[in-house]
Amino acid sequence: MASYDIVLLDVEGTTTPISFVHDVLFPYITNNVSDFLASNWNDPALQTHIRAIADQANLDAQSAISSAIPIDLLNDTPEEIRSKILANIDWQMKADRKIGALKGLQGFMWQTGYKNGQLLGAMFPDAVMAIKRWCEKSRSVYIYSSGSVEAQKLIFGYSDHGDLSGLLSGHYDTKVGAKIESQSYLRIAGDIGVASGRVLFVSDNVSEIRAASEAGMQTVVSVRPGNAPIPESELGVFKTVTDFMEIPL
Ligand SMILES: CSCCC(=O)C(=O)COP(=O)(O)O
Ligand SMILES: [Mg+2]
């Protein structure tokens, strides 16, 4: 592996167990969303997320996605809107959809859970050790996740290893582009102001790794308990680690 200046990390399956996302973060949403919408309906910040979910639902309905029900924010009653939004969140979460509107609402809701102590972001200990070592050795660490920037700041800010936010130089979510498109990685390198070859991207998802590699980034696949197995056709194509401290500096 060549030297690198920037480390770009995925979250779920990389710094954080998939089980934490699926068994803690997602149930927090499904268990609380109905009450949360009822209690906070008139909050302008919530209404911004509602509009984004409705816009996405209308796009999905136009694209004939079978579970999508159009939401008419001007003519539906508030009760109709609320119940359609709840149905929409339910199917999107069951499908584990990595789409900006849903991820935005999730991050907004998790804020309450982290701040009141119900949620504590789970980190693999070796990921935290490696992030600290990279910072000590003058590498800058950035995050790129399907989770919203707000959700990323929360999981690292309220982590089971304390507040890690000071170790991170920046965050990207899918506003910069889809994680399986190489253009997204070129945009991130451009935004940081570095040649893509000076960036090391670590993720559990081989399609993301392939896209980053096509953009010229160096890559490592994160192999963690509970992650999806690497497809047989991809075995041996990319460097893999089970512990971040194995990644050379
Ligand atoms: C970053 S906070 C919650 C995780 C999440 O919702 C998610 O979709 C993570 O996807 P990733 O791109 O980090 O695998
Ligand atoms: Mg991931």
From TrEMBL:
It is an enzyme of class 3 (hydrolase). Keywords: Hydrolase. It comes from the Eukaryota. Its EC number is 3.1.3.77. This is Enolase-phosphatase E1. It comes from Kickxella alabastrina.
